[in-house]
Structure formats: C-alpha cells, structure tokens
Amino acid sequence: MDKPMFAHRNRYYLTSKLIFWFTIFIFLILLYCLRSCFYYYSSSNRPRHILQSGWDSLVAQSATPADPDCNLSILVTGAAGFVGFHVSLALKKRGDGVVGVDNFNRYYDPSLKRDRAKILERNGVFVVEADINDSELLEKLLSIGKFTHVVHLAAQAGVRYAMKNPDSYIHSNIAGLISVLESIKSANPQPALIWASSSSVYGLNSKVPFSEKDRTDQPASLYAATKKAGEEIAHAYNHIYGISITGLRFFTVYGPWGRPDMAYFSFTKDILKRKRIMIYEGPNQRSVARDFTYVDDIVKGCLAALDTAEKSTGSGGKKTGPAQLRVYNLGNTSPVMVKKLVSILEKLLKVEARKQVLPMPRNGDVMFTHANLSLAETELGYKPTTDLQTGLKNFVKWYLYYYYFQSEKSVM
Ligand SMILES: *[C@@H]1O[C@H](CO)[C@@H](O)[C@H](O)[C@H]1NC(C)=O
Ligand SMILES: *[C@@H]1O[C@H](CO)[C@@H](O)[C@H](O)[C@H]1NC(C)=O
Ligand SMILES: *[C@@H]1O[C@H](CO)[C@@H](O)[C@H](O)[C@H]1NC(C)=O
Fold first, then answer.
1. Range of the domain at 398
2. Which CATH number covers residue 218?
3. For 17-30, what is the mean pLDDT?
4. Atom of ligand 2 nearest to the CA of 136
5. Structure letter (DSSP) for residue 311
6. Does residue 20 sit within a domain?
C-alpha cells in the first residue's frame, strides 16, 4: 500500500518539478528576447535612420540620378565631413544620385557636421547615420542603391590626436577601410572605389616636390602609417578581387566648412578672440610650410578621378581580369610658410595676431609638403586655380557668417 502511494507522490513531484523548470526556461527566453530587443533600440551604434520606416526607399530615391544621361550613382562615406560634404554637393549638382554615410563622431564639434548634413538633405542627398565599420549595413546600402562608385572619405584625421587616441585611427582608417572594401567585393556589380589617402604618406621623405613614385615607407605619424597601410590594403583588394581603386593623396585641404582642428581654422578663431597663437618652427629657425589646397580644387580632382575610373572587373567576390589601380597627388604645388598664412589671416580679419614662436615638438608633423602634380595633370586634367589669398578670403567670409552673423540671428 505504501509503495504505490509513494510512486504516485513521486510522479506528482516530478511533474511539478518539470513544470517549474519549464516555467523558468520560458521566463529566461522571454528575458533574453526583451533584453536583446531593448539593446537593439537603445544601442547608440545602431544608426537612427535604419529604424525609420521607408528607409530603403529613401536610400533608393537618393541614389537615383536626376538625368538618365548622367548615369552615375555614388555612395559617399564621411559625407558630413569637410571634403565629403563638398564632393557630395558637387556630384548632386551635376545630376548624379548621391547617398551619404557618416557616423557624426565627436572628434570635432558634431554640430558643424549636422549643419553640413542639413544642407545636403535640403539638396536631396540622404545621409545615413552609421559607422563604416558596420559592413552589414554597407552591404545593405550597396544592394539597395546599385552604386557605380563609392567615394570613401570617412577617416580619422589629424596627426597629433593619434597620441591621445590611437585606437580611433585603427577603427576608421584600417578596420573601416576593410569593411568598405569587403562590402564592395561582395556587391554585384562591384562599384569602383575612389578614396582619400594623404600627403602625409611621404613622411620624412626630403626629396621635393613629392612624386607618386617617391618612397613612402617612412611615416612620421600613426595617421600617416594608417594611410600608407590603406594604400597597401587597396593594392591587395585590387589584386585579389578586381576592384577598380583610385587613391588620392590630399595636401592640406582648406576652405569654407573646414575642419576646426586645422591650423588655419584655429588661428582664425584665436586671432578673433585675441588669444595667443603658437607658430612652430624647425631647427635653425626653419619655417614650417604647407602646400595648402583649396577645397574646390580638391573637389574637381575627386570628380575627375571618378569620371576616369574604369569599372571593377570582379563580380560576386570573383575577379574576372586585372582592374585599374591608381594613386594621385592632389595639391596646389605652391607651398606657403605658416608665418605667411598668419599674415594673410591678420589682413583679412583686420586684427593683429599675438604670436608665440616655439620649436616644433616631435608629434608627427612634418616640416614641408609640396606636391608634384604632373601625373594628376596628365591623367586627370587636374589644375588647381585658387591661391591661398583667395581661398582664405572665402574661408574668412564663411567663418564670420557661420559663427557670428548667423548665430546672432538665431539668438534674436
Ligand atoms: C552610362 O551610360 C552609358 C551609355 O548607356 C554607358 O556606356 C556607361 O557605361 C554608363 N556609365 C556608368 C558609370 O554606368
Ligand atoms: C568593427 O565591428 C565589428 C563588428 O561588426 C567588431 O567586432 C569590431 O570590434 C569593430 N572594430 C573596431 C575597430 O571597432
Ligand atoms: C614630377 O613627376 C614626374 C613624374 O610623374 C617626373 O617626370 C618629374 O620629373 C617630376 N618633377 C619634378 C620637378 O620632380
């Protein structure tokens, strides 16, 4: 009598135990789902636009060229950045379909990037808020847009900041570039790539003017090293997958809507605020000089590179023949001493600068840059037309409008 009674109780015990654990199991699954859903919506890495309904059609619409004869469709990374903004506008204005990508990071005041993006959106360029390291998203973009070209301008810029935050250079200039190349590789058809390298790859090279064939194996900064690595990575992807790639070595680009971390920009700001500015010089009072290049000239060079780019030969990750691989200097071939830059700014701003001359610290900056433009001239028809005086005049006009006149208006 005892035994069946025990068995019955045991069975009862087992069933309730089973129900108990089953409930716990279901509860845990629910908890996991809730957590990952919450994470999905709250994660700051998730681009805002992807949650917007109709996202796909906004991308497709923005990628469509206005004129069927101007049949390019271009994805621009770093579109809310200085050069990216100007290139996107120029492409849109001539009738190409343009979609931008930007992560709006905080390396410099993001409100400047937001304002650039607002102008782009007003001109019909949709800017997706995303990190280029998100290759899943890039692949999705490339499948929606059917882009003929990718203009890759997103990067971690600046030479000195690398001492503070080396990781961000690896993230954007190495991992980001590979992510862009990986998504191009898988796209069908593969778009051609035009991307921004830098004059800093010439590093400690003392033979001037710098020609594309000169040695670039002595970088003076981590920034330069990541750009040089980018050129080698580009070589490998061109070789293996048949992606058509053009690298552009920009020389100290300046102009309206420029980057606040650059000397001409911070000098302008500090001169107007009567703050002291530091001017660095090399050993034996050697002046630092730069081949300052006006942004409109750079834009013309980018468009010429784009229009002369051949198609990629790969398809579905397989190469079908050799593809174009090019690299060009885009400079002004007229180096100007930093002291001269300051004196032009003083005249334009009608304020005398409080200058302090210091020996140049060993932080990655080079003494001198000067581009040999023969190759860009013969192959791209590149010919810069804006001198520093004219370019800075346009910059100062914009600066005063943007930071003084416009903000006064918005206060009123
Ligand atoms: C534009 O159209 C022309 C003529 O149809 C074609 O030859 C050319 O390859 C097209 N360009 C691109 C970039 O698709
Ligand atoms: C890039 O994204 C991947 C995930 O897609 C992540 O594992 C990796 O750590 C990221 N790389 C950097 C440098 O942020
Ligand atoms: C500029 O580069 C070209 C090759 O692109 C070379 O033939 C020429 O000699 C260079 N000019 C100078 C002044 O170095």
1. 155-411
2. 3.40.50.720
3. 78
4. 5
5. P
6. no
Nearest to 194 by CA among 122, 284, 96, 103: 96
What is the phi-psi region of residue 12: left when phi exceeds 0, alpha when psi lies from -120 to 50, beta otherwise? alpha
Residue-wise pLDDT for 147-164, tens only, equals: 999 999 999 998 888 888
* Continuous segment of H or E residues that includes residue 6: helix 2-42
Atom 14 in ligand 2: which residue has the minimum CA distance?
171
Residue-wise pLDDT for 336-367, tens only, equals 999 999 999 999 999 999 999 998 887 778 88
Q: Which of 107, 108, 202, 223 is the catalytic position?
A: 223
Does 375 reside within a domain?
Answer: yes
Average pLDDT rounded to a whole number, residues 184-201: 95
Determine the residue of 43, 133, 172, 181 to mutate for testing ligand 2's pocket, defined as the one with the most ligand atoms within 8 A of the Cβ atom: 133
pTM of the predicted protein model = 0.85
- How confident is the model at residue 40, as a pLDDT? 42
| Closest to 200 (Cα-Cα) out of 184, 167, 223, 179 | 223
Average pLDDT over residues 278-287: 87
In a domain, residue 91? The reply is no
Single-letter amino acid, residue 341: L
Question: Which residues of 73-148 form beta strands (DSSP E)?
Answer: 73-77, 97-102, 126-129
Q: Mean pLDDT in the chain?
A: 89
Q: Are 105 and 81 in contact (CB under 8 A)?
A: no
Q: Per-residue pLDDT tens for 368-407?
A: 899 999 999 999 999 999 999 999 999 999 999 999 988 6
Judge whether 331 and 199 are in contact, CB under 8 Å.
yes
CB of 209 shorter than 6 A to ligand 3: yes
CA atoms 334, 281, 168, 229: torsion sign: positive
Domain count along the chain: 1
Percent helix, percent strand, percent coil in the chain, to nearest 5: 50, 15, 35
- The burial of 365, by beta-carbon neighbours within 10 Å (0-12 exposed, 13-18 middle, 19 or more buried), is given as middle
